[in-house]
Amino acid sequence: LYKKESLWTESQRVRAGILFREYPDIEKAYYLSMRLGSIYHQCRHKDVALTRLARWYDEVDKSGFLAFGRVARSIQTHYLEIINYFERRSTNAASESFNAKIKNFRSQFRGVKDRAFFLFRLSKIYA
Description:
The chain is mostly helical. The protein has seven helices and no strands.
């Protein structure tokens, strides 16, 4: 269910058919998540993306799925930052990754007592 339907093998297609027949809510959730992903992969202009995100948001409201409601609210709260992706196709993934490395480094030493030395070590390791 993490793949696009077009990338399923024949056996995955059969299993998905059984799963969707037995659990229609999973089918609805799958297609909602795929539609959100397609907005990011297909839209090249922010105006089109905003329109499609608004339509997706309406579908989420009608579906009643709480998990998607949280995602939709997060998108609604941060839509100005999200729209930047459609203008420049850039994300903050590199800074998030670096932040995770810093947190991991800090946790290895169970905190930071000498901040100057900590910053020195960070610059030597990650610079």
